[in-house]
Design a protein that fits this description.
Layout lengths: L14 E4 L16 H10 L4 E3 L7 H9 L2 H6 L6 E6 L1 E3 L2 E2 L3 H14 L5 E6 L7 H18 L2 E8 L2 H15 L5 E5 L8 H12 L7 E2 L25 H15 L8 H16 L17 H5 L9 E4 L3 H16 L4 H7 L4 H25 L42 E2 L2 E2 L8
Parallel strand pairs: 1-2, 1-10, 2-3, 3-6, 6-7, 7-8, 8-9, 9-10
Antiparallel strand pairs: 4-5, 11-12
Length: 428
């Protein structure tokens, strides 16, 4: 079968706001986060794509509530932003890639996100199930796409890059149609660049259209204060040796006489900037959130230069604004960055500063990578040895109750006999 048209790479914005942080894995109480403010500010700053998953706890509900507001309805029509979500992963040790669960999960996401269609649906963390199960789920998502239009583009996501490559090749071989999108996380960072060195040639050869790079801090590993500890405790799969090496590299970076030398600041800019360039072949031409006044026609124009696609994760508005400053500074430093800066109301000095900061980050990144030594390109096992999928048979349970509302007033669903009432269904 031919690829879906128009190609996703002609439409998708190269910067996506991720919502894995709207989850108790990364934060003690996701309902205490200003999620509505984050989403509204992201849209106001030009972000036009949001990534989420049913596995991210209340993230779909929180994102959906933020989008189902008068502010969004009046200023940002649904056709002007992209929603990317996932199917298949239920919990840490439960996966269901059956046709019935895929249909249920898509229906539930439509309801939670208050939308009649999903721009992208991934099969989530594909390394935990068999290739046959992945193929079943991909084919069901494509059936929904072709028969109902409720899903526009189909892809897979996961951690081991060789698995992503093997499955992309298998799906092309078995179906004759390449995947629209394959998302890797924690594999193009200061510590690990296997997405570029190992996966990129194979994913291109398998016809994959877009490859977003997610988790540029390695799931929070590349931070001065260490991995994030949420309500679930220390979830991070990295070994102590790697953590110790990163702490030593962080100490070295902080001791350098260069501004903004914290390892997380270096890691964010380095990964965003490097992947923007190195991921061009599997990048996209959508609106880059450069600060130039936005018009809908830009997102539908097929000209322009591809940029490597990145997913950013933030837990507050300040982190969002800082990431956007970094992103726009990187754009100012591209070949046509002077024009971008001027069109966006910035100045030639902003481009000059961007180029200077690029040099500073290069120096710091080289030192950090040298300090990491043998841990460069180390990848932890996923799944861990002995993993067993506890989902023994397909089942369609009632939705989990929603905890107390966040400061952004996410409504708590009405209960009927102790079960949360579902919103009206949109048939798929």
């Amino acid at each position: 079968m031919p690829r879906t048209t128009p190609a996703l790479s002609t439409l998708l914005p190269p910067l996506i706001c991720g919502t894995a942080t709207f989850n108790d894995q990364y934060n003690p109480d996701p309902y205490a986060l200003p999620t509505t403010s984050i989403v509204h500010e992201a849209l106001s700053l030009g972000v036009r794509a949001f990534d989420t998953s049913p596995y991210y706890g209340p993230a779909e509900d929180l994102l959906g509530a933020a989008l189902d507001t008068s502010f969004v309805h009046q200023n940002f029509p649904r056709r002007d932003y992209f929603l990317l979500t996932k199917v298949g992963r239920i919990s840490g040790d439960e996966f269901d890639y059956s046709e019935s669960w895929v249909r249920h999960s898509v229906q539930r996401s439509l309801e939670r996100l208050h939308t009649s269609y999903l721009d992208v649906v991934y099969c989530h963390d594909v390394e935990f199930v068999s290739p046959e199960e992945v193929l079943t789920a991909v084919e069901e998502l494509r059936r929904i796409r072709d028969e109902t239009g409720r899903v526009k583009y189909v892809g897979i996501s996961g951690y081991p890059v060789t698995t992503l490559c093997e499955l992309s090749e298998m799906i092309l071989r078995e179906t004759g149609e390449p995947l629209d999108i394959v998302m890797s996380y924690a594999n193009f960072t200061l510590q690990n660049t296997r997405l570029a060195s190992v996966a990129l040639p194979r994913l291109e050869a398998a016809g994959v259209d877009v490859v977003p790079n997610a988790s540029v801090l390695g799931m929070g590993l590349l931070r001065r204060k260490g991995v994030p500890i949420g309500a679930r405790g220390d979830f991070h799969p990295s070994p102590q040796g790697l953590r110790a090496a990163i702490q030593a590299a962080s100490d070295w970076s902080s001791a350098q006489d260069i501004a903004d030398n914290r390892i997380e600041k270096v890691a964010i800019r380095w990964a965003l900037e490097k992947w923007m360039r190195e991921g061009v072949a599997v990048g996209s031409k959508g609106d880059p959130a450069s600060g130039i006044p936005w018009i809908r026609e830009k997102i539908e124009s097929y000209g322009g230069t591809k940029l490597g696609v990145s997913v950013m994760g933030v837990s507050n508005v300040e982190e969002l604004e800082e990431t956007m400053r970094v992103w726009r500074s990187i754009l100012d430093g591209l070949e046509d960055g002077e024009k971008t800066a001027l069109d966006a109301g910035r100045s030639v000095d902003d481009r000059t500063w961007s180029l200077q900061r690029q040099q500073q980050v290069t120096v710091l990144a080289e030192g950090i990578r040298k300090a990491l030594g043998e841990w460069i390109d180390y990848a932890w096992l996923s799944p861990a040895p002995g993993f067993v999928n506890k989902r023994s048979a397909p089942a369609i349970p009632a939705p989990l109750p929603t905890p107390a509302a966040s400061p952004d007033q996410v409504p708590k669903p009405a209960l009927i006999n102790g079960i949360p009432e579902l919103r009206p269904r949109v048939p798929i």
